[in-house]
Design goal:
The complex is a heterodimer of chains A (434) and B (460). Chain A has helices at residues 2-61, 75-78, 86-91, 94-106, 110-118, 125-135, 152-158, 175-187, 196-200, 213-244, 249-263, 266-280, 288-313, 316-324, 329-357, 361-365, 386-394, 399-430; strands spanning 63-72, 143-149, 190-194. Chain A has 434 residues and is mostly helical. In chain A, helix 11 (249-263) crosses helix 13, helix 12 (266-280) crosses helix 13 (288-313) and helix 13 (288-313) packs across helix 15. The longest helix of chain B is centred in the middle third of the chain and has 41 residues, at 154-194. Classes of the chains: A mainly alpha (434), B mainly alpha (460).
Chain lengths: 434, 460
């Protein structure tokens, strides 16, 4: 009897201990689970912060301030030779005409005030006026309303980044300019609208005139070269290794090489381009041809690895069926295996191209970082690409460049997202389960 | 673009031959059964018309460069070749610039003579070789056309050519590797002939300068020194910061996603995490320089700490965010590869889920996780844009994350962007840095693959 009660006492004690222990273990379990959730939350919040920080500056970067001026297009001043040709227009005084239009409204007194008034409109205004006349010479002699971009300092002031209460010597625009801007604002001729310079302008040191068109065209040319080299080479290599190569030491060596190339830092490919293509072969710097080749070599491993995966995912029964009906090995591979593996290969290629589109470091090495104003027209014209343009703009300290850089990033991200969604869509649409 | 027109006409010739071959074999096949189908005969003829001529184009393109270079050498004036400072590359590029119309200064008479000779040879070679190549194409196509007959096995020939083509394509991977190795090794050797290896590997100050600046006395601190220890310390520091963000966050996310999350959550969260890997590094660099670095600095100021405006901490944090998905998706794969029976056994013995994860699944997946961390390290070491934009160029030997440091990759970029004098130790030092960078990343990659392989053998 006594013995028994002792035993039950012990069990009770043990049960408590077990309960206590269980409670601790369950708490530990819950803690661990929350830790996992917190990690994911942290990673996703990084993503959100990144996107907010880019988009909050990028979206305003698509817009800029313009002023609408009534300009009298004095034929004699603008077009002294009277043929409305390029030379005549450049010899003419388009700048003076615009300045007069500004003076007309602001009525500045004295040389200093006039100097300030001239600085309000962007330096690109005269070029815009010349282009308008080149397109339509009948405008000469008329008075027309034209929208000109405001200077980037004025733009920053209107966005509220230059405080009018700071001492005059500490800000980039003086009191006269502020009073002029106020006058323009009161007249209601200042407007905030989608920036045409951003999309159609080229590289420029003036923030309000800078645009991404040149870099965008450069990106497309470079990517086209990259694709036309990397896709055939990658697919051919994958087909050879997966379907035709015997398992020899040599093919193993090729495979090791491909895996190594996938791990080599991208900047090293830039050094390869610099040392081999530019120094050894003497191909000029800064051209999309070299950029495309370097990016192709860089994306090749990605394409080969994903193409091999796509080929090996095609069931062997398909090939066996073709072979048993009398097809040669080549016919079985080219008529049956490759068409079925193509969606997977294309997906890998799109992902590789997205990688190439966002790549910067190797292109810096081969000189695609030059300041290029002209829109590139071919594979041997000096060009730059979007990511490099972003890199260059990020170095400029003007407020407006921060906005334009962010806007360029938004454009770049939009393209990358489109490409990736395209890859996912392609995979979903064409993927087959065997 | 003369080569372009040559290739275009070659393609047209071979297409015409292909068409003729197709018609011919189709005509024969009406009366007698052919060994191969007409398309194979057609491709055989077209390839025969194209390939030999195409190879000749390549041979000529390579040979004429070598020939002209040797021929130009005769034009170098005696007093130039006799002097100690004679540099063949320099003299040759002088002539090349003249030929390409790039003229900076007054050209000497011998350069003009050599350039004129170059142009006339070039025209001669081009004319003669074009005629020969076109003729070759016609002849080889014609011969192939006459081989078409009932028992000619054109299919096997065509297939053999295609196999060779595929084989050559697969060699590109090896050629690229060779190219990388050679482009780095030669310049590195030249660098090490100027600067002793021991100074490069163990020197404590990194202060590269162009010889010109040094001679003129405008160098910042006198003599140029090439001790790479500060760069490797900087790389190490930033990588450690990056990994201390990426490894815990990535690993815990992977564990949660593979062990706890529902299928639905997993299918949403995993692609979202992978977006982080798809964002271009230049965007991260911009984010680091513009948002994170000022934030870190002002936070440090509030705490009374002295933070450099381009601190290692900011660059490291952002790099850590970038490599989270590398750690998480690779760890996810290895955790998923742990056999379910191990989990079941541990749960059946009464352990909670977290206990079975910590005591059974993670030890089983450990080697794979280590491999994924090694791959993340190799990413961090090779990452360029973030450090170029956010970490600065001050080669401080410091382990304080609030200091400004510089890394191997950002030095390579800074040295090699823009025009270089290829004779100077400063330019060459970038190649030596690249060599060490390649060796480090390849070692990391190799050991990671070794570990993964070992692990696979363990379970399969």
């Amino acid at each position: 009897m006594n013995n028994q009660s002792n035993e039950s006492h012990a069990t009770l004690h043990d049960a408590d201990r077990v309960k206590e222990n269980l409670r601790k273990r369950r708490a530990e379990e819950a803690r661990f689970k929350w830790l996992g959730r917190a990690a994911i939350g942290l990673a996703l919040s990084f993503l959100v912060v990144l996107f907010i920080s880019i988009f909050s500056k990028g979206i305003p970067g698509f817009f800029q301030y313009y002023v609408t001026l009534e300009v009298f297009l004095d034929a004699e001043r603008i077009d002294p030779e009277g043929d409305a040709g390029v030379n005549s227009l450049y010899a003419g005084d388009a700048k003076g005409v615009i300045n007069d239009a500004v003076f007309e409204i602001l009525k500045p007194e004295g040389r200093k005030a006039k100097k300030s008034a001239r600085k309000i409109v962007s330096k690109g205004a005269e070029k815009r006026l010349r282009n308008m006349i080149l397109n339509d010479p009948s405008l000469l002699g008329k008075t027309i309303e034209v929208q000109f971009a405001l200077d980037d300092d004025i733009d920053s002031f209107l966005r509220g980044f230059i405080d009018r209460n700071t001492p005059e010597s500490d800000r980039r625009i003086d009191d006269t300019m502020i009073s002029f801007v106020d006058t323009l604002n009161e007249m209601g001729i200042v407007s905030y609208r989608l920036s045409d310079y951003l999309f159609f302008g080229s590289a420029s040191r003036n923030a309000e005139m800078a645009g991404i068109r040149g870099a965008f065209v450069g990106s497309i040319i470079t990517l086209a070269i990259c694709l036309s080299i990397a896709f055939p080479l990658g697919v051919a290599t994958a087909v050879y290794l997966e379907e035709f190569a015997q398992k020899t030491r040599f093919t193993e060596f090729i495979e090791i090489n491909i895996n190594n190339l996938a791990a080599v830092p991208s900047v090293v490919f830039g050094i390869l381009g610099l040392a081999i293509f530019i120094n050894l072969f003497g191909i000029p710097r800064s051209i999309p041809l070299v950029g495309g080749i370097v990016l192709a070599l860089m994306t090749l491993p990605t394409i080969i690895i994903s193409s091999r995966a796509a080929i090996s995912a095609v069931p062997p029964s398909i090939k066996d069926a073709a072979l048993s009906l009398g097809a040669s090995k080549h016919q079985a591979v080219f008529h049956h295996v490759i068409p079925l593996a193509l969606p997977g290969m294309l997906t890998g290629t799109i992902i590789g191209m997205a990688q190439a589109l966002g790549e910067t470091a190797p292109l810096l090495m081969i000189g695609m970082v030059a300041f290029i104003v002209d829109i590139p027209g071919g594979i041997t014209d000096p060009a730059t690409v979007l990511p490099v343009q972003i890199f260059m703009w990020a170095d400029f300290s003007e407020r407006m460049f921060i906005y334009k850089t962010s806007a360029a990033i938004v454009v770049l991200l939009a393209f990358l997202i489109t490409m990736n969604i395209g890859a996912i869509w392609l995979r979903k649409k064409l993927e087959r389960r065997w | 673009m003369p080569q372009f027109w040559l290739l275009a006409s070659l393609s047209i010739i071979s297409l015409i031959y292909g068409y003729v071959g197709y018609m011919r074999s189709a005509r024969i096949s009406t009366s007698i059964r052919l060994n191969s189908r007409s398309t194979y005969h057609a491709s055989f003829v077209a390839l025969c018309a194209f390939l030999p001529a195409f190879m000749l184009v390549i041979v000529v393109a390579i040979a004429d460069g070598v020939f002209i270079r040797n021929a130009i050498a005769e034009y170098y004036p005696l007093e130039l070749t006799a002097s100690d400072e004679f540099n063949e590359i320099l003299a040759f590029s002088q002539v090349r610039n003249f030929v390409n119309g790039v003229i900076f200064t007054e050209t000497e008479q011998w350069v003009k003579d050599a350039g004129a000779a170059w142009l006339s040879w070039d025209a001669q070679i081009r004319n003669v070789s074009s005629v020969v190549i076109i003729c070759l194409s016609f002849i080889s196509g014609f011969l192939a056309l006459h081989k078409i007959s009932a028992d000619f096995t054109s299919r096997s020939y065509v297939e053999r050519i295609i196999t060779w083509f595929l084989r050559i394509c697969s060699l590109i991977a090896i050629l690229t590797t060779i190219g990388i190795v050679f482009s780095v090794i030669f310049e590195s050797f030249r660098f090490f002939s100027l600067i002793p290896v021991s100074e490069f590997l163990f020197g404590l100050t990194w202060n590269p300068q162009f010889e010109g600046a040094e001679r003129a006395g405008s160098g910042q601190m006198g003599l140029a020194t090439y001790g790479s220890i500060p760069l490797f310390f900087g790389t190490l520091l930033i990588s450690v910061i990056a990994l201390s963000v990426a490894v815990p966050v990535g690993l815990l996310s992977a564990i949660y996603l593979s062990e706890y999350a529902t299928h639905r959550t997993r299918s949403i969260v995993k692609p979202l995490l992978e977006i982080l890997a798809g964002i271009p590094t230049v965007v991260y660099g911009f984010f680091a320089a513009l948002t994170v670095a000022p934030f870190v600095r002002s936070l440090g100021m509030d705490l009374g700490l002295d933070v450099a405006s381009e601190s290692a901490l900011a660059a490291g944090l952002v790099m850590g965010i970038m490599i989270i998905p590398f750690v998480s998706s690779l760890s996810d794969d290895v955790i998923n590869a742990v056999p379910q029976s191990l989990r079941d056994a541990s749960l059946a013995l009464g352990s909670t889920k977290s206990e079975s994860v910590k005591q059974v699944v993670l030890p089983a997946a450990l080697s794979g996780i280590v491999a994924s961390v090694l791959l993340a390290v190799s990413r961090a070491v090779g990452e360029t844009m973030i450090v170029v934009m956010a970490a600065g160029l001050a080669a401080n030997l410091s382990l304080n994350p609030l200091d400004a440091v510089t890394t191997v990759t950002s030095q390579i970029v800074t040295i090699l962007v823009g025009d270089q004098e290829f004779e100077s130790a400063k330019t060459l030092s970038a190649f030596a840095l690249a060599l060490t960078l390649i060796i480090i990343t390849l070692l990391l990659n190799f050991s990671a693959l070794k570990i993964v392989k070992k692990y696979r053998e363990h379970y399969e």
